[in-house]
Write a structure and sequence with these properties.
InterPro entries: Flavin_Rdtase-like_dom, NADH-dep_flavin_reductase, RutF, Split_barrel_FMN-bd. This protein has 175 residues and is of the alpha+beta class. The chain has helices spanning 16-23, 70-76, 89-94, 101-106; strands spanning 4-6, 28-29, 31-35, 42-46, 49-54, 57-64, 78-83, 110-111, 119-120, 125-137, 140-152, 158-162, 165-169. The structure holds nicotinamide-adenine-dinucleotide and ligand FNR.
Length: 175
């Protein structure tokens, strides 16, 4: 586990709502981030996920520190990024807040791979990761996550969150 950095707050001329309205114009994949371990099983929906480097294979996940799941991720130090397919809209909403944890997990099939974090059975792709570094910016922690195992489903269609709504993302069919 490496250092935790804290950015100095700076005055911004952009209002929070204007920022969110602007961010709603960026389409993104939708993911259910899961963890399990001494801190308990937990999961939440995240669109703030991206690739950092392939050497070592690293993704980042932004997690609001006020989320109910925050203590579990902090304690477990492992997580799985489960990228959702077009059929997962209601599952995304379940993991998107307020629903009790057991009810979230009861709605789908799960397995485990290397770290013990729940792997969503029909996810588009699952990155089983250990958290290697954490940086604090404003309300969120940026979790840098090194993939230790990956499962892929090359047949399913994708799911995109854009303009505050879900959209299916179709694979190009072979011609
Ligand atoms: N990064 C995040 O924490 C994040 C991202 C997406 C959605 N959400 C949450 O999901 C719910 C629905 O979101 P929505 O997209 O339908 O409408 P919204 O108006 O709350 O958000 C619009 C866009 O702004 C960004 N955003 C929203 N809340 C943020 C936050 N606290 N920190 C950083 N960026 C944020 C995201 O890109 C989001 O898609 C809200 O409660 C929202 O806070 C959080
Ligand atoms: C489409 C979409 C996308 C995101 C979210 C929601 C939705 C619907 N949420 C919010 C997050 O899922 C929610 O705060 C957690 O489920 C925690 O909620 P509880 O505190 O358990 O109610 C979210 N939260 C976060 O910290 N980082 C993120 O990238 C996202 N992205």
């Amino acid at each position: 586990m490496a250092e935790t950095l804290t950015a100095k707050p700076t005055a911004s001329t952009v209002e929070k709502q204007a920022f969110r309205d602007a961010m709603a114009h960026l389409g993104s994949a939708v993911n259910i981030i899961t963890t399990d371990g001494p801190g308990g099983r937990a999961g939440f929906t995240a669109s703030a996920v991206c690739s950092v480097t392939d050497s070592p294979p690293t993704l980042l996940v932004c997690l609001n520190r006020s989320a109910s799941v925050y203590p579990a991720f902090t304690e477990n130090q492992v997580l799985c990024v489960n990228t959702l397919a077009d059929c997962h809209e209601s599952l995304s909403n379940l993991f998107g807040g307020k629903t009790p944890m057991e009810q979230r997990f009861d709605a789908a099939e799960w397995s485990s791979l290397s770290t013990g974090s729940p792997i969503l059975s029909d996810a588009l792709v699952s990155f089983d990761c250990k958290i290697t570094q954490v940086t604090q910016i404003g309300t969120h922690d940026i979790l840098f996550c090194e993939a230790v195992a990956i499962t892929r489903n090359d047949e399913r269609h994708g799911l995109v969150y854009f303009d505050r709504r879900y959209h299916p993302l179709m694979r190009q069919s072979a011609c």
